[in-house]
Amino acid sequence: MSGSGGHTAARMQEQRNMLDLQAFLEDGLRSELLLQRQLQAIKEAHKQQLQETERRQRVGLEKRIQQNSMLSAGVDRRSSTDRQLDKLFSSRGPRRSSSMSDLTSGKRSTSRTSQQVYHILCSLGIHHNCYTDRITATSAPKTNRNRAAPTK
């Protein structure tokens, strides 16, 4: 009987070894699945971060493009005004110096010339008050002077 008892003990040890191996394999599979889920979550988080970064960069780029176009439009307008002034004064030849009020009021120049000067000055944001002979540079838009004052 010692022969069959030794055989049974070896068989039981083999079954325990198989159960241990199976548990080990199952633990390995669970660990692999857990790692795959974690990797997928990391990939999703990274993808969202990239999309957010791309969105912020796109918004910044669009803002810079808009600012550049606004600056360019201002430079183009200024260049056009400079050309108008150059054309106006170079075509008249050398002249005696005259005051701004004389130019805008038309006392020493033709009506057409004073209108041209007035429009050029306005396009530069420079306004002449004929009543006070004052020249002012403004960048703020004109306000409605006929608006009623607030009552208290």
Task: Provide an overview of this structure.
The chain is mostly helical and 152 residues long. The chain has helices spanning 2-92, 100-105, 111-123, and strands spanning 126-129, 134-137. A two-stranded antiparallel sheet has the order 1-2. Helix 1 runs antiparallel to helix 3 (111-123). Residues 102-111 have a biased composition (Polar residues). Residues 48-65, 75-86 have a biased composition (Basic and acidic residues). Residues 48-111 are annotated as: Disordered.
Keyword list:
mainly alpha, two-stranded antiparallel ribbon, disordered C terminus, 152 residues
SSE blueprint and pairings:
Layout: H1 2-92, H2 100-105, H3 111-123, E1 126-129, E2 134-137
Helix pairs in contact: 1-3
Region (Disordered): 48-111
Biased composition (Low complexity): 90-101
Biased composition (Basic and acidic residues): 48-65, 75-86
Short description:
With 152 residues, this protein is mainly alpha-helical.
Strand order of the largest sheet: 1-2
Relative strand content: 5-15%
Helix/strand-derived category reads mainly alpha
Ranges where pLDDT stays below 50 over 5 or more residues in a row are 139-150
Helix content: over 70%
Total beta-strand segments: 2
Give me the oligomer status: single chain
Order of helices and strands: HHHEE
